[in-house]
Design a protein that fits this description.
272 residues, alpha/beta, Metallo-beta-lactamase, Chain A, 7-stranded mixed β-sheet, binds zinc ion
Amino acid sequence: MKLTFLGTAAAEAVPAHFCICDTCRTARKNGGKDIRKRCCYLLNDDTLIDYGPDIWNQSIMYNFDLADIKRIFFTHAHEDHLDPVELIWRSPGYSKIEEFIDIFGDARVHEKITARVDYEKAKINKNQVNPGDVFHAGNFEILAIRADHDPNSTPLNYVITENNKTILIANDTGYWDDANWELIKNYGKKLDLAVIECTCAFTLQDFSIGHMSKKYTVLFKEKLQELGLTTEKTRFITNHFSHNGAPLQADMEKFFTPHNIEVAYDGMTVEI
Ligand SMILES: [Zn+2]
Ligand SMILES: [Zn+2]
Ligand SMILES: [Zn+2]
């Protein structure tokens, strides 16, 4: 299984639009890994996790063809993860489309897309996902877990397995509650890769609700180990950073490397 980080920022990107904070000014100056587009992943060559406002640029920069995409797993409907306008272009008159695409997400995701796009005309298959669901798509088996994020919808984290390799995508979540730890423990799959968010990074106050800062990202990793869900080979990568948490790549690596956690950057590809 191959995972490409198409974007590693939270909602406002880094540097953020209009922002004059030190992190944004330094990121602009440094360029490279300090420039972060909105969080999104390419799984193998035909599956996206989220589809946000940077998607067209991401497809050009990282050289994949949106026409090859067979399915999108949405984590949730926030603007950095879902831009329904960018799905309008599947509608008749805009693009030549022959194959249907499968879209997976909670009720809010589908509500937001249907406000702008006719599923039948745009050749979209609707798949509603609820927390606790185990479902299959292509060669994948997926467990959906309720993220601790936005109580007005049902944000999801995903455990995705293909050919006996398993990854966890846990962005846009706070530190999980006991029911979630129990769910993933009982599911019982050993993780080859765990992607754990750190939206708040170095903010003065530690965050564990709705999003996480550095301390809780480390605790989240250690809890997965404690539950026996990892091996010595498991890779841990942190992702989804807000400029407000000062996520400059060098600073992040300095903190996380001793914890055996890698720091994602735009364009990073991992094969497991
Ligand atoms: Zn987000
Ligand atoms: Zn800023
Ligand atoms: Zn969010």
